[in-house]
Write a structure and sequence with these properties.
The complex is a heterodimer of chains A (134) and B (117). With 134 residues, chain A is of the alpha+beta class. Chain A is 44% helix and 17% strand. The chains are: A alpha+beta (134), B mainly alpha (117). The interface between A and B is medium-sized, with 22 and 23 residues.
């Protein structure tokens, strides 16, 4: 990624916005599937987590490294009437913890706002430079 | 020919220097016009206009790409709002610089034209 130009901060801020959008997408998937007992592979939905990496060492934007699954244990709740229940009457529930997701949501929102603020401030800085022409 | 653009070129260089992330300190040698330097590097008004023409086409490219990204978004071809924001920001920024340079050029031209002979 070229950063030796005027548009460097714009590209970096935009990559940050994209990353936080992706994070938001992952969080929404986790929240939507908080009670999904069947995710297709015979087990409940596994919590997802977005992994980010920087494009380059030094000054760089951020890009998505991948979506990893949370390998922690599933929650087990007692619900004998559930068709997905085992012999003891327990149903495995996704390893999604709603309060954690809410915290991550706030972090993602704030990070998105921060990137948008950088974009705005940089535009203001450039305009300040252009004021010198007048 | 009267060196109309020494003033304009100096300001433009200063702005380019300020925007170049690699050179934190602007190269002051280039910015200060030296006496007798004009013979080595002929930079008259016409050449400046030609340079501006090149920049105009660059700005136009950015405007076109911002236009296409807006059209793609509105027609549903793409749903990426952030790329629209980035394209519009770039187009806006470079257009403002172009307008600033243009105003300065016209100002310099008028000043010369109104010079009492």
């Amino acid at each position: 990624m070229g950063i030796d130009n005027t548009f460097g901060p714009i590209d970096i801020a935009i990559s940050g916005l994209r990353a936080q959008s992706k994070q938001m997408e992952v969080i929404s998937s986790n929240v939507a599937n908080v009670r999904t007992t069947d995710a297709g592979r015979g087990e409940p939905y596994r919590r997802l987590e977005a992994i980010f990496k920087s494009d380059d060492d030094g000054i760089s934007g951020v890009s998505l490294d991948g979506i990893a699954t949370d390998t922690s244990d599933f929650y087990r709740i007692f619900d004998p009437g559930n068709p997905d229940a085992d012999e003891q009457g327990y149903v495995a529930m996704p390893n999604v913890n709603l309060p954690t997701e809410m915290m991550n949501l706030t972090i993602a929102t704030r990070a998105y706002q921060a990137n948008a603020a950088i974009l705005k401030r940089y535009q203001q800085m450039v305009e300040t430079t252009l004021e010198l022409l007048r | 020919m009267v060196n109309l653009n020494a003033n304009v070129a100096g300001t433009v260089n200063a702005i380019k220097g300020a925007w170049d992330a690699n050179s934190v300190m602007p190269n002051t040698n280039k910015l200060v016009p030296k006496a007798g330097d004009g013979d080595n590097e002929k930079s008259d008004f016409a050449n400046t206009i030609k340079a501006v023409e090149k920049y105009v086409s660059k700005v136009d490219d950015l405007q076109q790409s911002s236009d296409t990204s807006i059209k793609d978004l509105l027609s549903g071809k793409s749903e990426d709002i952030t790329s629209v924001v980035s394209a519009v920001a770039k187009a806006d920024m470079s257009f403002k610089l172009l307008v600033g340079v243009r105003n300065k050029l016209i100002e310099a031209y008028k000043e010369t034209m109104n010079m009492p002979l």
